[in-house]
Amino acid sequence: MSLVQRLGVTGLAVVALVTVVVASVAVGSVSLPVSEVLGALSGTRELESHLIVTDLRIPRTVAGLVAGACLAVSGVLLQGATRNPLASPALLGITHGGGFAVVVAVALLGLPPSVAVWAAFLGGAAAAGVALALATSGRDGLSPIRLVLSGAIVSAVLLAWTNALLALNEHAADDVRHWLAGSLAGRDAAAVAPLLPLVVIALAGSWLLAGPLDALALGDEQAVGLGQHPTRVRLLAGLVAVLLAAVAVALAGPIAFVGLAVPHVARALLRSGRHRQVLLLSAALGPVLLLGADIIGRVAARPTEVQAGVLTALIGAPLLVRLAVRHKATS
Length: 331
Hints:
By secondary structure, the protein is an all-alpha fold. Helix content is 77%, strand content 0%. The chain has one domain: ABC transporter involved in vitamin B12 uptake, BtuC, CATH 1.10.3470.10.
C-alpha cells in the first residue's frame, strides 16, 4: 500500500474516531444536540445538561477511548510476540483475573464498589504474571504454545473461582454482574486520571517494540541475525501488553473481542503487517469499536442499557469469522 493510501486509511479512522467521540457525548438515554453540548461545556446552559455532559458522558467517553486503545494495542503486541493470530488480552487471563479480584473485593472483603478499578488492575496484572511464570518455567523457556496453555489454565481456574463466589453470594453477584459484563457506565474522572501515566508509558513502550516485533515476525533465526533477542522481545512485549490490558479491564471490565478483532481489521485495511503502522491504526480503531458499541447499548434498550461488552462480542465475532474466511480464500 502506498503512502497516500495509508494516509487515507488513517484519515478515515481519525474521522470515525472523532464522530464516535462526539456521538458518545451527545447521545444517550437523553439525547442532546451538539449546540447544547457545547453550551453545557461552556457552562452557559441549564444545570441538567451541564451535569449530563461534564459529570457523566465525558468521563465515560474518555474511559472508552483509553480502554479501547489499550485493548487494541495490547492485542497487536500479543499477536506479534506469540505469532498467534488468536492471541488477545484474555490469553494471559487478564480479564478473568480482573473480574475475580473485583468479586473478591466486593463479596469477601465487603469493600465499596469504588475500589473495583484498583482491584481489577491488581488482579489482571497478577493473573498475567502467573501465566507468564508458568510459561517460562520449563527448560525451553517462553514459547507460543506454552503461553497459550498457561493462559488457558489460569483463565479456567479464575473463571471457576469467580462463578463459585458469585453462586455463594447473591448480593455480591448483583453488585458486580453489570461490571463483569463489560461496561463504561459509572466511570468518573477520579477512576481514569490516575491510570493515564501508565497508559502513556505503555504506549511509548509498544512504539519502541514495533521494530523488534517486525524482526521477530521473520522467525527467531532471522531475528537473531538482525541483532534481536527473541525471548527478551517476547517478554517485554508481554509485559507492556499486560499493563495495557490491565488498565482496560480496570476501567471497563472484561471487554471481549476488541483486542482480538481490531488488529486483524487494521492489517486488512493497511494490507501490511508492519507493527508500527498496525499499532497506530489499531489505537484509533479500538476506541471506535468500543465507543460505538457503548453508544448502541445506550439507545437500544432505553431507558436501560445493554453493556458494551455484550455488543462488542456480537460485533466482533462475525467480523473475525469474515476475516478468517477471507484469509483462507486468499491463502
